[in-house]
Each structure stands twice: as structure tokens, then as C-alpha cells.
User: Which sequence fits this backbone?
């Protein structure tokens, strides 16, 4: 291989690595947002008095 081909391959691999890191970072951010939203939804769904009392009509 000549130096030009090696340089091109190196730059291509470096670029692909940078792209992969950026995509993984974005996916991690999205997963953190989804986890936060899920936690908020679960906290909002908890009602401690639900089901303790009931009305009976005869």
C-alpha cells in the first residue's frame, strides 16, 4: 500500500469512530431522558390511599 491509501484508510476509520461515538452519546442521552420520564410517571401513578376505603350501598 502506498502512503496515500494508508492515510485515506486512517482518516476513514477515524471518521467512522467519531460518528459511532457521537451516535452512542446521543443514544445514551435519549435513554437517560426516557428513564427520567418513566420514573416521573411511576411516581405520579402512586396514590397511597387508593383502595383503602370503599362505599357500600344497600
Assistant:
Amino acid at each position: 500500500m502506498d502512503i496515500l491509501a494508508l492515510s485515506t484508510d486512517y482518516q476513514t476509520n477515524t471518521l467512522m469512530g467519531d460518528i459511532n461515538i457521537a451516535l452512542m452519546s446521543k443514544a445514551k442521552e435519549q435513554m437517560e431522558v426516557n428513564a427520567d420520564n418513566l420514573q416521573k410517571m411511576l411516581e405520579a401513578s402512586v396514590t397511597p390511599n387508593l383502595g383503602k376505603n370503599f362505599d357500600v350501598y344497600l
